[in-house]
Amino acid sequence: PDPLGVHLRAMGIGAGYVAVEAADVTESHRLARVRRDFVANVSHELKTPIGALQLLAEALLDATEPPTATGPAATPAATGTTVGGAPGGDRSEDVLAARRFAERIQHESTRLGRLVQELLELTRLQGAEPQPAPEPVAVDWVIAEMIDRTRTTAAARRVEIAVTGERGITVYGNDNQIATAVANLVENAIIYSGEDTTVTVTTRSDDEFVQIAVADQGIGIAPTDVDRIFERFYRADQARSRSTGGTGLGLAIVKHIASNHGGRVEVSSTLGGGSTFTLRLPARPPDDLEATLQSAGI
Ligand code: ADP
To answer: Which residues line ligand 1 at a C-beta cut-off of 6 Å?
Structure first.
């Protein structure tokens, strides 16, 4: 007697299928473990030298700081800086050049750090780590968190963030991931807009989904690009995007967060006429599997 086998056969599932599925599960567990180890190794192996580069660049910037009217004279002689320059040559020019290089090292290493961090985040979202169990998350908290995370960028570009729509609604999922998705959309909305514009975030809920829409008055996206912007590293305008310091991974991360939640992200945009990105996430807890099986008489 093989109650499970009988049950499965009654459901039209043969033993062969079950065996193949079991092998698949083992293989996918193995792959998940390989990915997890990879993420941990890469984190350590790349983040450590990048952190060191940033510290070194900072030290070099401190050492080459020009003298201020009030502060102590930070001349190369006073600080003992020995960057470049032939003996007896014009040291101050060399120090200035060294300072410019240090600034670039700092800029590039910060960019590299962000790239590594976002690549790791994407790898985790693609299954390197199990998706945390969904929990109720207050959308008001998500909005407050987003405002916090985007405050500096918004202030630097003099972009106002207006929030409208329903308050006190709840979404189901992982709080940090949802805040990341909304913050990424708002960060983009700010970056791809002109100064003194407004980004409007609208929240709304129906029976099944919570919608968070992020509308900007920015540069918009051409129809030829709109289908591709969610691909990793894709950018609509290479030159312009590069000057924003972005990594090209922000929207890929948003897309994976949406799909891991059983939701989706959509965009409608006109070149030169602004864009609206809409994130749809579950408004209810996922169906209880046990209850579903029972109600199906299994
Ligand atoms: P990036 O780091 O380049 O911003 P993303 O994945 O976040 O990477 O976005 C991919 C591309 O989509 C951007 O390079 C940009 O061309 C386009 N894009 C994203 N959001 C907007 C927006 N709100 N308005 C106009 N273009 C956008």
So the answer is: 188-189, 192, 216, 218-221, 229, 234-237, 241, 246-252, 275
